[in-house]
Amino acid sequence: LARGPLPADLAGRHVVISAGGTREPLDPVRYLGNRSSGRQGYALARTAVARGARVTLVAANSELPDPAGADVVRVGTAVQLREAVLKAAADADAVVMAAAVADFRPAHYAAGKIKKQEGQEPAPVELVRNPDVLAELSAERARPGQVVVGFAAETDDVLAHGRAKLARKGCDLLVVNEVGERKTFGSTENEAVVLAADGEETPVPHGPKEALADVVWDLVVRRLP
Length: 225
Ligand code: CTP
Ligand code: CA
Description:
CTP binds at residues 103, 113, 131-134, 151, 165, 169. By secondary structure, the protein is an alpha/beta fold. It contains 5 helices and 12 strands. An 8-stranded mixed sheet has the order 5-4-1-6-9-10-11-12, with helices on both faces. Helix 1 packs across helix 5 (209-223). The radius of gyration is 18 Å and the shape is globular. It binds cytidine-5'-triphosphate and calcium ion (CA). Residues 78, 97, 99, 101, 103, 130, 132-134, 150-152 line the site of cytidine-5'-triphosphate.
């Protein structure tokens, strides 16, 4: 794929990216998790480094190698991710929430391994809501003009769900992709529409996750004060 010289249009900027998927422990050996590989977030980190940014990558349970030149902060749960992202966001020009954050976590953590009991049905797992990091970042910008970006994987009426989610979260940009059987998870490619709070809609054709990442940075750069 031929690409021109990369613009250093993020030089002097600090960007924070979350990537991967959170895991919510039930006991010392089990968790509720999701299938996010972290690839899109890592591609955002690599492209931001290439464009001159100082990059903090908050990585949730990804097995990918650390992107050269990025500060990597490893987290496990949604609560840990929130803490790391909010801390790094304090002086950030842009925050991109590419991580798949678990909406719920088990209400109780068993300090010892949960055992099955002879002749007993399993106990139901009670869940509680996790904090919504993207909504919080959007509502309480750590700096004026900070650009906040979310990701959404949707099925069915993808654009309608995306537009509603953009409004609900209050972020500046929402990258919407369609998920299905063979789409997106674990893949190195992606296809998306980037929705902006100002109404701009940017379709990104099927291609490498780096290409989508560069479109995201283009749109972020134009919104930086
Ligand atoms: N997100 C977050 N904190 C959460 C859940 C999601 O910051 N507790 C972020 C994700 O990182 C992503 C965006 O919000 O950037 C959208 O995630 P998504 O799961 O699509 O949104 P939800 O509001 O959880 O909607 P749904 O009920 O469709 O899962
Ligand atoms: Ca969710």
